[in-house]
Amino acid sequence: DQQVKQNSPSLSVQEGRISILNCDYTNSMFDYFLWYKKYPAEGPTFLISISSIKDKNEDGRFTVFLNKSAKHLSLHIVPSQPGDSAVYFCAATGRNAGNMLTFGGGTRLMVKP
Amino acid sequence: DSGVTQTPKHLITATGQRVTLRCSPRSGDLSVYWYQQSLDQGLQFLIQYYNGEERAKGNILERFSAQQFPDLHSELNLSSLELGDSALYFCASSATPIGNQPQHFGDGTRLSIL
């Protein structure tokens, strides 16, 4: 039972354009959502998070949107840069989960120069 | 650099053996988490410790155990190893075990069972 799903295994975008990565969840107890970026041979690096009391959070080129009714979140990267090429994971946790993260399967983003 | 240190980076061993993976959390972080990333399962939560005490358990096999020491470093012990235990094992840390704060990950230990 996959509680967090990233349905696109890969995404290719031109440099300077917008990258949109999507994530769906099924567990209504999740109330905190995170995005991590992962390069090969490195651990996941925290990018941005959002609490369920908000519907948008922005940090520089990265914006996360949360649609609670649809149980959907997305990460927007504008403008995309070649250095953004990595695997992106969304993760979720809830008050009752003790900060234990449930991860999606990841989306590989390729930004072409 | 996340500040979380994992050793060793690579470990190659045989079936039936036992190994210990080590993690030092970020300075000031009291909570440590272990995750397994295998090809077919993605990143899966194994176990969490907070200030030396086990806090939560995920899909951790009985052959696996962990502990957190007074200096807050943690060790994950894997015994009676099977081919299917080959995976990347990540450690993460956070200041407290309460939600709404990010976990910071180490670079992982790649375990290969021959």
Oligomer: heterodimer
Number of strands of chain B: 11
Compute the separation of the termini of chain A in Å. Answer: 38 Å
Low-confidence spans of chain A: none
Portion of residues within helices of chain B:
under 10%
N-to-C order of helices and strands of chain A: EEEEEEEEEEE
Question: What does the overall shape of chain B look like?
Answer: globular
Order of helices and strands of chain B: EEEEEEEEEEE
Q: Distance between termini of chain B?
A: 31 Å
Number of strands of chain A: 11
Work out the strand percent of chain B.
Answer: over 45%
Characterize this entry briefly.
By secondary structure, chain A is mainly beta.
Overall description:
The complex is a heterodimer of chains A (113) and B (114). With 113 residues, chain A is mainly β. Helices cover 0% and strands 56% of the residues of chain A. Chain A has strands at residues 4-5, 10-14, 19-25, 30-38, 45-51, 56-59, 62-67, 72-77, 86-94, 102-103, 107-112. In chain A, the strands form 2 sheets. In chain A, strands 2, 4, 5, 9, 10 and 11 form a 6-stranded mixed sheet that branches. In chain A, a hairpin with a 6-residue loop joins strand 4 and strand 5. Chain B is mostly beta strands. Chain B has no helices and 11 strands. In chain B, strands 2, 4, 5, 6, 9, 10 and 11 form a 7-stranded mixed sheet that branches. A 4-stranded antiparallel sheet of chain B has the order 1-3-8-7, with no helix packed on it. In chain B, a hairpin with a 5-residue loop joins strand 7 (64-68) and strand 8. Chain B is globular, with a radius of gyration of 13 Å. The mean pLDDT of chain B is 94. The interface between A and B is medium-sized, with 27 and 30 residues.
